[in-house]
Design a protein that fits this description.
alpha/beta; four-stranded parallel β-sheet; 10 helices
C-alpha cells in the first residue's frame, strides 16, 4: 500500500499568472517548502505535475537554490502541454498575431517572457537562462504530453525536442531561422545533462483530441487540444491509471 500526499498549488492561479515568472517561481517555491515543512517526515519521492505555464514554473522551482536539498528526492515530472522553449517557432499565425495584439493591449509579464521578449537579446531571456541552469536531470522520469493540434504550446516545445532543420534553410539568417537556432540551443542545454546522467528516462506522449462538436474558435486556435488534457476527466483518469507506476 502506497501513501500519496498531494499538494495542489494555490499560489499560482488565474489572478497571478500574468506576473513575471521570477515572482511566480519565488511564490511557488515558498508554497512547496511550507508544505514539506508541515509533513511529519520528508517524502522519499517528490513528483510534480504541471500544465502549460505551470510546467515551466516546476522547472524554475526545482532549479531554485532553496530546492537543492530536495534534488535527491525528485522522482517524476509530468508536463501537460508545457511550452518549454517558450512560444517561438509557433506555426499558428492566428496565435502569434493574437499574442502580439494582447501584449499591446495589456501588460502581461509572463506572456512577454514566454515570447522571449523580456530582453533585447533572447539569450538573456528568462526561458533561455532557465535552460542553462535546468535541473530536470535530477528526475528519474520525465513524461511529456503534447499534441500537434495544440498551437498554444508549440509541438516541439512541448516535447522538448530540437526544431527540425533542413538543408534548404541552411545559410539563411531570417528571424525564423535565428529562433530555430535559439530553440535548438535550449534543447541542447536541457537534454545533454539528462543524457549524461543516464538515470533519467524521457517518455513522450502524442495525443489527438476529437474535434467533433467543438467550438470553431477553440478548434482553429488550438486551444481545444491545449486544455483538453486537464479538462477531460475521462482522459485524466485513464492517463493516470496507465502511468501510475511513475508516481508510486
Amino acid at each position: 500500500m502506497h501513501t500519496i500526499d498531494f499538494l495542489m498549488s494555490h499560489s499560482v492561479n488565474g489572478n497571478t499568472t500574468y506576473r513575471n515568472m521570477e515572482h511566480l517561481t519565488e511564490t511557488f517555491v515558498c508554497e512547496i517548502l511550507d508544505y514539506l515543512a508541515s509533513l511529519d517526515k520528508l517524502p522519499e519521492k517528490i513528483s510534480f505535475i504541471g500544465h502549460s505555464l505551470g510546467a515551466l514554473l516546476v522547472r524554475a522551482a526545482i532549479a531554485h537554490p532553496a530546492m537543492e536539498p530536495y534534488h535527491a528526492c525528485l522522482h517524476s515530472f509530468l508536463s501537460f502541454c508545457g511550452p518549454h522553449f517558450g512560444l517561438i517557432n509557433n506555426p499558428s499565425k492566428i496565435v502569434t498575431t493574437g499574442l502580439w495584439i494582447f501584449l499591446k493591449w495589456r501588460k502581461a509579464e509572463s506572456l512577454t517572457q514566454l515570447a522571449l521578449r523580456d530582453d533585447p537579446d533572447m539569450r538573456n531571456s528568462f526561458i533561455y537562462k532557465l535552460s542553462e541552469r535546468d535541473a530536470m536531470h535530477h528526475f528519474h522520469y520525465i513524461l511529456l504530453v503534447s499534441s500537434a493540434q495544440d498551437h498554444y504550446a508549440p509541438y516541439y516545445s512541448a516535447r522538448l525536442e530540437p526544431f527540425p532543420t533542413s538543408s534548404s534553410s541552411s545559410g539563411r539568417s531570417d528571424g525564423r531561422d535565428s529562433t530555430v537556432t535559439l530553440q535548438n540551443e535550449m534543447a541542447r542545454n536541457i537534454l545533454e545533462p539528462i543524457s549524461r546522467n543516464q538515470k533519467t528516462k524521457i517518455i513522450r506522449y502524442d495525443i489527438r483530441v476529437p474535434t467533433e462538436g467543438a467550438g470553431m474558435p477553440d478548434n482553429i486556435t488550438g486551444r481545444l487540444a491545449h486544455i483538453a488534457v486537464i479538462d477531460s476527466e475521462i482522459f485524466l483518469e485513464k492517463f493516470m491509471t496507465v502511468n501510475v507506476q511513475y508516481f508510486v
